[in-house]
Amino acid sequence: MFPKQIYKAYDVRGVYPDELNEDIAFRTGRALAEFIKKTSGKDAPTLAVGYDMRLSSPVLKTEVIKGITAQGAKALEVGLSSTPTFYFAVGYYNCDGGIQVSASHNPAQYNGFKMTRQNALAIGENTGIMEIRDLAEKNEFVAASQAGQTETGKGILSIQVKEALKQVDIQKIKPLKIVIDTANSMGGPMMEVLFAFLPCELIKLNFELDGSFPAHEADPLKDENNRQLQKAVLDNKADLGIALDGDADRVFFIDETGRTIESSIIRGILAKIYLADHPNATICYDIRPGKITEDMILQYGGKPIVTRVGHSLIKAKALEVGAVFAGESSGHYFAQGAYGFFEMPMTMILKLLVEWSAAKSVGDYVNPLRKYWQSGEINFLVSDKLAVFERLRAKYSERLKYDFDGLSFDLGDWWFNIRPSNTENKVRLNVEGTNQALVEQKTKEVSEIIEKKI
């Protein structure tokens, strides 16, 4: 049976080989080629193909290329790469689209695909991913009379790093001691090349590529995966810790005390930096609570726009409203560059290093911004998602703020968002407020309504 469930709102994710295997990779390559033919108006478009260090990625990449070229499209191999490097390659080589073989931060048994159109425009639920799914499921392809060629693009990471370095004056970066944990994933090569140009002392953790993830899961959003990094920051008396996820499109920061800096604060700082160069500009951020972001956008003269959750959705909205920067609570930070609007972790790291170099310490800069307390995302397995939303709407109807991507309520000194899972009988709750006790109390209150205890 065809695994329709692996084609999700933002990308394709499934367990290898039970859900996602060589046949599905071949079909998806063919489907993407046909989709890009239609959107580009070209009979023989060029598609960039990248892949990560997962054990199943090389064979899946090979089958994707076979599928692309079977339909007469050209495959441009960009090699072993992070997702941001792949996006950069799509734009830099002026490709008509592309596909990255990666399951991001998922455990080792997973793999997946992130697909784009020209300029690395993400293909998501409303922009083609379900059409590609349906083409792959039908499997009624007619092979091209002449197969497409395969070419190789070399040195793209070095080109990308040089482009990132143009965005700041590296003379303003102090010789900071920085510990970086790349979780045996694609951030390793990227950080190696970048930091060769910086005056900082780099202490490397888990830089060896290993798709079995021997050190820990490649998801820094879960703070338990940052314990080794937090300890290394303290042990080495470092100024800063940096963690990247499996495909290096998300980045997280640890201050000199070993404390993780909330993504909403990082997002706010970056908004401030971008607004200094682009006064009165629009900044996008996702609907999950993170009020400090809105505070800082308004403080520095920007226009805040709230978006749905998901990298493809926030990018689409940012492009629609002409945002110069966008940030997601999960650690994705996007900006408009010379080759598209997508995640740019190297640029974000560089801008933050310049900003923090002027401060006494990272913690000294960040601590005044730690004004709010967050529950973190809490998942509930429920039998009826709609009934949960009806109960919450009835309880807090007068304080409803947003009714897209779930429901968001603002109750003055605390606020929350609840979203349904796209694929499971789950709802996801995020609560934020002005102090820990209040957030804990209100999280319990809302949880009881979700679980129908009151």
UniProtKB/TrEMBL annotation:
GO terms for biological process: carbohydrate metabolic process. PROSITE patterns: PGM_PMM (PS00710). InterPro entries: A-D-PHexomutase_a/b/a-I, A-D-PHexomutase_a/b/a-I/II/III, A-D-PHexomutase_a/b/a-II, A-D-PHexomutase_a/b/a-III, A-D-PHexomutase_C, A-D-PHexomutase_C_sf, A-D-PHexomutase_CS, Alpha-D-phosphohexomutase_SF. One of its GO terms (molecular function) is magnesium ion binding. Pfam families: PGM_PMM_I, PGM_PMM_II, PGM_PMM_III, PGM_PMM_IV. SUPFAM superfamilies: Phosphoglucomutase, C-terminal domain, Phosphoglucomutase, first 3 domains. Residues 377-446 form the Alpha-D-phosphohexomutase C-terminal domain. Coiled coil: none annotated. Belongs to the phosphohexose mutase family. This is Phosphomannomutase/phosphoglucomutase. It comes from Candidatus Magasanikbacteria bacterium CG10_big_fil_rev_8_21_14_0_10_40_10.
